[in-house]
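asparagine--tRNA ligase
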Amino acid sequence: MGDPATPPSSELAAMAIVDGASLKHPFSDRVPVRSIVCRPDGGAGLAGNRVRAGGWVKTGREQGKGSFAFLEVNDGSCPANLQVIVDAGVEELSTLVQTGTCVSVEGVLKVPPEGAKQKIELRVERVLHVGPTDPAKYPIPKTKLSLEFLRDHVHLRPRTNTVALAYLLIMISAVARIRNALAFATHSFFQEHGFLYVHTPIITTSDCEGAGEMFQATTLINEAEKLEKELIENPPPTEADVEAARLTVTQRGEIVAQLKAAKATRDDISASVAELKIAKENLSRLVERAKLKPGIPKKDGKIDYTQDFFARQAFLTVSGQLQVETYACAVTSVYTFGPTFRAENSHTSRHLAEFWMVEPEIAFADLQDDMNCAEAYVKYMCGWLLDKCFDDMELMAKLYDKGCIDRLRMVSSTPFERISYTEAVQLLEEAVKGGKEFEKNVEWGIDLASEHERYLTEDIFKKPVIVYNYPKGIKAFYMRLNDDSKTVAAMDILVPKVGELIGGSQREERYEVIQRRIAEMGLPLEPYEWYLDLRRYGTVKHCGFGLGFERMVLFATGIDNIRDVIPFPRYPGRADL
């Protein structure tokens, strides 16, 4: 029997000192707080390791007459905080200690003095990033808060020609299983890499893409129809009806006055006052009904949305990105996976009015991290289908696309080519000079068409291609402006058969820059004030991307029309069931 004071070998293995680099987040340059403080030993076994950590200051205090400060830093990877100690010689302490401040720091993990609550603490040697917060303006104080209060600051509160009918049935069921496998793979990939699944709203008041092609969510039309029907069945009062009711009120009032003057009994006066009250209520109802007009309510010649269900214009979302960023800027690594909508009157084989998007966001990460994560995710899904859905893939290869399995194998095992947008345009221009014809002309500044994207990935490189640094004029306002002021830190992943599969970017974290970009795009500032708050308070570099889920199913199966890879397709003129 072993020494009872000696921990079991499994615990010894868990407590063994490891290299700080092995703890690093796979798509960021930091070590998650969870990897440090959630070990069986509370992190003590990591003492001596140099790490880089980042998060938001929950509490901070200066000690030793301002010679150093204690910070409780949390990145959302676990409930526990990491205690961080910063000397005054390293950074200005007054900025660091404010609640809500975002910090990225590098230092050495050390065991605190005996008796301390923490098992490990980080002695900071370098402060890499500070996203300051003005304590006079920061809406979330350190004091105990009510749920009602936090509801008013929800964006900061956290700090998702066929051969036969049989052939059709076989193909549809196979596609359904492949779609299911890809959805499972999506959650598995992000869960395995420490991402939090966030459910973003389907109804929104902001336009992520800025294109204005959104379905409006309103009850004004229904209410107007109900009112019109009701006014036909029960016409509003005429002016004569209102005057008659007003006269009744006057008469009832005179009777009350006469009774009081005659010193009538209390019961008689009370009964007369009650009749006067009823007359006044009837007059009030008639006056309000007389104001009712058929049609949608208007004010100053425009639709009065204050009378709508949400008291403002609302739409079906085109993307959950903006909303999920609120959680990325509090718990660092998140993703949303849900339906999105686009009111684009397009009948092509590539467009749907309702489709699903996978949208991860990563804090403390840049465009390179974004590309690394997106490439790893696509490869993971391809490998998942080969490992766990091979029978269905063999069926698709036999019945529909002979090359679908080889395509998955190629993508899962081949490094993606990475070229700038400028290099991509140059390659396309050279192809045109060599005799290649495109329907859409090629020149710097265009939004690459599907024919351009597929030529790059299918003909030139014969593998997936990541194109990055696009002209700012063809990309959204939230993408980070590069130093050349002409391009943004955006990237698209192009794959054979489909073209663009993923679109992403490093997000603009600089308040003044993104405010200017919103104005340049001709968008109103008011609907995005909550989004700007993420830059006002505790700003941090972050990135993300969106994968059109149906396009991934198209790529995997080789099916040509996107309407065939979603169970209930919605497109112009069709919204069955």
